[in-house]
């Protein structure tokens, strides 16, 4: 299949698209190859464009829900929802029920004036309402823009402004372990404080009352305690999700907006090598085909299997492998709101036994964290007998963690799929296919169907013209891809020039992943980490420039330089060199400690807890004569 997918990509993807999805208008054929794929991957020949199935009409929500209900599978479980608290808050939602909720919310959005192509932002915990909101947008042709709930008010504001999302769906709080995350408060701060004077106005904030918060007056500081959470309320702007959904005029049927293959589906921000995060735009048909095809083969999903991806929906893994890939394939999944160590480090393994999970997908950071805590938390109280496939994503997995995952979590009998991919790629790029590919601990092995990788020398200069630079055989260099796959992001929202320069402006005819790799003599690919100014902290992507600009926004800081440092658990730690302004006095240890602490808090506030610096190194400005 791989050979066919690269030698005859049009035939390969034609067959996949033709056999597995519902098209309202199927306007693609092999006689007209451009109706399958029309593209230019070479900046020297003109603007970059990638269009899959551009003349055909479909809808990804219809493919994810209606189709299964119409085929008689409406009573199949779509999600087992496991709440944060071990004793409480669990539910099951079938395809039929999910469709009903999505239709209602689609109608809610339409009633609020949301139209095809409009952006709707979500800033939510891992709750069913987030999945419902995402699918409702897709149903009515609106573009969803999910912002990870761990980002700060400021980071949220910059994403709202950039995407012009006039509607935001949020929650009073998120709950993780014994902590509340004040999401609504961050939305208030983003809109009131950071969006002021930018020309951007938010029309509606839809609030899921997850913790049953009480509204308090604006003069009172809201309590964030779990037993009596409180929020502020803006009468003209805020509205409760349940009030909208319980409105009798909201119908349970919602007409599908049939969209073209290349119509926008969602945008998702990710860090690059400049301070401004990039809103990558994914479109409908290619993404639909790619996420579901990768899901089907890489997780070897079979009817009646139970699959669980532990990623947050705020990241691409959650989009592709919590929501779209599994639902399009009609899968039954687990979704978990809480954290792996609450109330004990056995929580994940107990969930696996409870739902008899067959495929489990997580990140190396989590594997390393639980490995360090000790095997007894795995072995006592869980058998994990149901597991068949274990997936890893987000960062290189070191062989030690790989083997622990295999031997301890998987009882030595599961296939490990180390999946390399990116926000930009929509789905897996380099990954084993279980049962087909002999794995080597630490290697993501081989390209997925349709992916044509190349290793380029690390010495290349921008705008290198020819393909002759490709390294052959056993080699080490930059990982590039030389042919479009259906899941690739099509542009950076509002900045196509940046998209072209970042990904295609280095070697003509190649998409640059930004990662280094080694290819061994058996052809296996080993990812070696980012080669640009991007850090990978616990699988979260952060630009060094993003951190540096947050540092210099602090009143004591003149200059900053951020670099990664090796970290046993997180992959990369964040090491920051900070040059202070002349007036700042750090002559005593106490003052240095206080400022260091204050700067760490500042970065948490500016970007979010994922960006908390590990080390602050006060440095001195380099003067030529000194
Ligand atoms: O450096 C690679 C690393 O994560 C980057 C992509 O980050 P993001 O867009 O946030 O998406 C993460 C989830 C897909 C890549 O450029 N990365 C991701 N998966 C792996 C990996 N590095 C090595 N091995 C992986 N399996």
UniProtKB/TrEMBL annotation:
<dbReference type="Pfam" id="PF13193">
    <property type="entry name" value="AMP-binding_C"/>
</dbReference>
<dbReference type="GO" id="GO:0016208">
    <property type="term" value="F:AMP binding"/>
</dbReference>
<dbReference type="InterPro" id="IPR032387">
    <property type="entry name" value="ACAS_N"/>
</dbReference>
<dbReference type="GO" id="GO:0019427">
    <property type="term" value="P:acetyl-CoA biosynthetic process from acetate"/>
</dbReference>
<dbReference type="InterPro" id="IPR020845">
    <property type="entry name" value="AMP-binding_CS"/>
</dbReference>
<dbReference type="Pfam" id="PF00501">
    <property type="entry name" value="AMP-binding"/>
</dbReference>
<feature type="domain" description="Acetyl-coenzyme A synthetase N-terminal">
    <location>
        <begin position="1"/>
        <end position="64"/>
    </location>
</feature>
<keyword id="KW-0547">Nucleotide-binding</keyword>
<keyword id="KW-0436">Ligase</keyword>
<keyword id="KW-0067">ATP-binding</keyword>
<feature type="domain" description="AMP-dependent synthetase/ligase">
    <location>
        <begin position="71"/>
        <end position="459"/>
    </location>
</feature>
<dbReference type="InterPro" id="IPR011904">
    <property type="entry name" value="Ac_CoA_lig"/>
</dbReference>
<protein>
    <recommendedName>
        <fullName>Acetyl-coenzyme A synthetase</fullName>
        <ecNumber>6.2.1.1</ecNumber>
    </recommendedName>
</protein>
<dbReference type="Pfam" id="PF16177">
    <property type="entry name" value="ACAS_N"/>
</dbReference>
<dbReference type="InterPro" id="IPR045851">
    <property type="entry name" value="AMP-bd_C_sf"/>
</dbReference>
<comment type="similarity">
    <text>Belongs to the ATP-dependent AMP-binding enzyme family.</text>
</comment>
<dbReference type="InterPro" id="IPR042099">
    <property type="entry name" value="ANL_N_sf"/>
</dbReference>
<dbReference type="GO" id="GO:0003987">
    <property type="term" value="F:acetate-CoA ligase activity"/>
</dbReference>
<keyword id="KW-1133">Transmembrane helix</keyword>
<keyword id="KW-0472">Membrane</keyword>
<dbReference type="InterPro" id="IPR025110">
    <property type="entry name" value="AMP-bd_C"/>
</dbReference>
<keyword id="KW-0812">Transmembrane</keyword>
<feature type="domain" description="AMP-binding enzyme C-terminal">
    <location>
        <begin position="546"/>
        <end position="622"/>
    </location>
</feature>
<dbReference type="InterPro" id="IPR000873">
    <property type="entry name" value="AMP-dep_synth/lig_dom"/>
</dbReference>
<dbReference type="GO" id="GO:0005524">
    <property type="term" value="F:ATP binding"/>
</dbReference>
<feature type="transmembrane region" description="Helical">
    <location>
        <begin position="120"/>
        <end position="142"/>
    </location>
</feature>
């Amino acid at each position: 299949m791989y050979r066919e997918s690269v030698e005859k990509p049009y035939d390969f993807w034609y067959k996949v698209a033709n056999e597995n999805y519902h098209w309202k208008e199927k306007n693609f054929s092999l006689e007209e190859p451009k109706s399958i794929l029309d593209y230019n991957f070479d900046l020297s020949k003109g603007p970059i464009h990638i269009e899959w199935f551009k003349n055909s009409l479909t809808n990804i929500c219809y493919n994810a829900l209606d189709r299964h209900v119409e085929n008689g599978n409406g009573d199949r479980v779509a999600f087992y929802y496991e709440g944060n608290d071990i004793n409480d808050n669990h539910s099951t939602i079938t395809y039929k029920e999910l469709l009903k909720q999505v239709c209602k919310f689609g109608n809610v959005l339409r009633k609020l004036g949301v139209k095809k192509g409009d952006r709707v932002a979500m800033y939510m915990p891992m709750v069913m309402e987030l999945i419902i909101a995402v699918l409702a947008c897709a149903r009515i042709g609106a573009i969803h823009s999910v912002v990870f709930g761990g980002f700060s008010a400021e980071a949220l504001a910059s994403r709202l402004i950039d995407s012009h999302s006039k509607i935001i769906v949020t929650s009073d709080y998120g709950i993780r372990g014994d902590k509340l995350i004040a999401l609504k408060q961050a939305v208030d701060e983003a809109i009131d404080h950071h969006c002021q004077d930018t020309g951007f106005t938010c029309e509606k904030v839809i609030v899921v009352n997850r913790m049953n918060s009480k509204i308090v007056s604006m003069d009172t500081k809201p309590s964030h305690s779990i037993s009596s959470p409180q929020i502020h309320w803006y009468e003209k702007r805020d509205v409760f999700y349940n009030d909208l959904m319980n409105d009798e005029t909201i119908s349970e049927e919602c007409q599908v907006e049939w969209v073209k293959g290349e119509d926008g589906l969602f945008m998702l921000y990710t860090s690059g090598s400049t301070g401004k995060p990039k809103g990558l735009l994914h479109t409908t048909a290619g993404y639909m085909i790619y996420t579901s095809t990768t899901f089907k083969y890489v997780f070897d999903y079979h009817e009646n299997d139970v699959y669980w991806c532990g990623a947050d929906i705020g990241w691409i893994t959650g989009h592709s492998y919590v929501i779209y890939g599994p639902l399009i394939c009609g899968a039954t999944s687990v979704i978990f709101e809480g954290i792996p160590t609450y109330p004990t480090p056995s929580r994940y393994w107990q969930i696996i036994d409870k739902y008899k999970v067959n495929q489990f997908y997580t990140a190396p950071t989590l594997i390393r964290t639980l490995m360090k805590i000790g095997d007894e938390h795995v072995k006592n109280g869980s058998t994990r007998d149901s597991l068949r496939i274990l997936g890893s994503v987000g960062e290189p997995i070191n062989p030690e963690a790989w083997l622990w995952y295999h031997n301890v979590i998987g009882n030595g009998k599961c296939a490990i799929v180390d999946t390399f991919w990116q926000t930009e790629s929509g789905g897996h790029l380099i990954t084993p296919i279980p049962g087909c590919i002999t794995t080597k601990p630490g290697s993501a092995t081989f390209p997925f169907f349709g992916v044509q990788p190349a290793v380029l020398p690390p010495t290349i200069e921008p705008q290198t013209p020819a393909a002759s630079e490709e390294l052959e055989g056993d080699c080490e260099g930059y990982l590039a891809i030389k042919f479009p796959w259906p899941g690739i992001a099509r542009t950076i929202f509002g900045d196509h020039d940046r998209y072209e320069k970042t990904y295609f402006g280095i070697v003509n005819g190649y998409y640059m992943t930004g990662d280094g790799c080694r290819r061994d003599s058996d052809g296996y690919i080993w990812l070696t980490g980012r080669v640009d100014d991007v850090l990978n902290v616990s699988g979260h992507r952060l630009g060094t420039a993003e951190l540096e600009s947050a540092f210099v926004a602090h009143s004591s800081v003149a200059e900053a330089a951020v670099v990664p440092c090796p970290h046993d658990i997180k992959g990369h730690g964040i090491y920051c060199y900070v040059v202070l302004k002349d007036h700042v006095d750090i002559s005593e240890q106490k003052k240095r400690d206080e400022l260091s602490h204050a700067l760490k808090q500042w970065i948490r506030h500016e970007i979010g807890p994922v960006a908390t610096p590990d080390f602050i190194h006060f440095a001195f400005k380099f003067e030529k004569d000194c």
